[in-house]
Amino acid sequence: MTPERAQTLSLPTETAEPKAVDTAVPVWLVVLFMGLLFGGMVYFDQHGAWFKPEVYAPYVSVAELQTFQPPTGGLNLERGKQLYESICALCHNPDGAGKPNQAPPFAGSEWVMGNPNRVIRIPLSGLNGPVKVKDVEWNLSMPAMGAALSDDDLAAVLSYMRTSWGNKAAPITQDQVKAVRSEIANHPQMWTAEQLNAIQ
Questions:
Q1: Which fold has domain 75-197?
Q2: Over 80: is that where the pLDDT of 13 sits?
Q3: pTM of the predicted model, to two decimals?
């Protein structure tokens, strides 16, 4: 064997380098992608609330916005809020949190959210003496702040208190207030917590 032949046999064989080649994307894959994209845009348009006047209308005041709120079952909670802020908020705060050594909270209060027959009596005749609210003892005297209100107005303010600041109690109706007012017509004294707790 000649030296040239031996050298040729000892060389490693050349391996082919990988090459990128252009291949067409299958048409069905393009159609599927476009269909999914179109379906997603239609779904987003129907459920995304973009450009809906109910969401993006330029309301000029809170009063105008209130006209678009869900119905409250005939109760005028906006009127109740106005009455609360003009009569009750001075002592009990606009957020219903109460004031230390002055007035107990309404937010989360078992009295506010409890038996309507009890809570209606408090603004009609007042409350005197010790009362426990949210495990805190209060010794106070609250005058009959709601005695001069109409049945409708008192129902509105009590319903506002029972449905605000995280409270989730049933609203109080005008008929409930009227019935309690008639029942306690001969009870001019302020109530005590003990007397109220005895009421069913």
A1: Cytochrome Bc1 Complex; Chain D, domain 2 (1.10.760)
A2: no
A3: 0.62
